[in-house]
Each structure stands twice: as C-alpha cells, then as structure tokens.
Amino acid sequence: MRLHQAWLIVGAAGLLVLPWHGLESPLAAIRTLDRSSAPAMFTGELWLWPLLLPLLIGLAGGKRRLVAAGIAGLALLAAQGLAIGLHGWGAAWLTALFGPGPSQAAMGWGAVAYALCAVMLLAIGLARLGWCRGDVFVLGALLLILGLVVLFVAWPVGAILRSAAQDNDGAWALALFGEKFFNPGIWGLDCIGGGKACGVAWNTLAQATVVGVLSTLLGLAFALVAVRTSLPLRPLVRVLS
Questions:
Q1: Is the distance from CB of 16 to CB of 41 less than 8 angstroms?
Q2: What's the CA gap between 203 and 144, in Å, rounded?
Q3: How far apart are CA 114 and CA 127, in angstroms?
Q4: What pLDDT score does 227 carry?
Q5: Number of C-beta neighbours around residue 29 at 10 A
Q6: pTM of the entire structure?
C-alpha cells in the first residue's frame, strides 16, 4: 500500500465511520446512534456529499492529482463550514439570497480525519513535484503548522478585529474601530508613572519576551551540555573507525 492510499483510508473513515459533528457526550451519543453521532455520509446533510470527490480524485494517484485532491478537500471543507452554521447561513448575503437556510453543528472527529487526509495528500503531491527535496514529512509538518496557525491564531484575531469595526447591529463603523483599538486599556503606559497598570498589549509583549528569552537560553544550555558530553567520545570514534 502506498502512502497516499493509507491517507485516503483515513479520509474515508472521516466520512464513513467517525462522527462528523462535535459531540458534547461522545459515549452517550454513540450509543444512541442518532443523527448527531453519525458519519458525514449518514447525517442527511447533502452538502457534505461533495467531500467525496477529492478522495475519488486522489484514488487516481499522480502527483498533480494528489495536489488537486488536497486543495479541493480543504477548500470544500472550509466552504461548507463557513457557509452553514449552527443557526443557518453563515453570511448575511446567503440569507438574503436563499432565505432561512439549513443548520449544522460544529465539526468533530470525522472532519479532523478528513482535514488531515487532505493536508497529507497535498503534501505527498507537492513532495512528488520536488518541493522540499521530496521530503513528505517536512512538507506535511509545515502544512499542518500553517493550518493550525491560521485556524487558531489568524482566524480568531481577524474575527476580533472585524467585530471591533462593527456596531451592535453588525454595520461597519470605522470610527468605532479606532475608539476600541486605541483604548488606553490596551496601550496605556500608566504603570511607568506609578499609576494604574499598563495596557494589555505591553503586558503581553513583556510576557512573550520573557518566555522567548528563557526558552532560548534553555535551548542553548542544553545544546552546550550535549556538545560537551559528546566531545570525549570523538577520539574514540575516530580510533574505532
């Protein structure tokens, strides 16, 4: 079995075996075997069926087909997740265009398995095209790290900044954004004069700097210890070789 075929099995399990949506009580939900614990293909949500297409593309093999399968899988997963939320359409223009829409719960283990499959298919395809000297592990690690940064850092920060530029009705208000963004609670320097505490931004920067410096020093210390420990062995290694 080739590597991409193993990952296709993982993706198929995400659609056909594992619960697609997140479960508040996994064991209880699985025992009841209702829609909330069903795999993607058995939830009755027809908008999930196109997710099969990237796996079928990946079955054909070929480096460019694997790249296409990975990109298509991630794009379709993101599109259906953003378009349909817990309370209907995920965007106002979709509601205006189609009226009240369907709803779906948050993604669960099935979606995680499918996303991993798509990322690894993309990594394998790019490796076969010569990226990163054909090292699938390096490409897979880079893509996973990039995806996690986008999912858990860039997207939440972007959502926060967007909400800061909107009023309570969801309308854009750039003046309100300036008022929120330059709030003294964020950038204040009152702690220098012995007054109130400094803003959140400076406290976060100070903590990040301290953590960065300490982790760097610890890394250098461990590296020096490792080097010094290995030095006496080098002459012996030369003799034995």
A1: yes
A2: 30
A3: 20
A4: 63
A5: 19
A6: 0.70
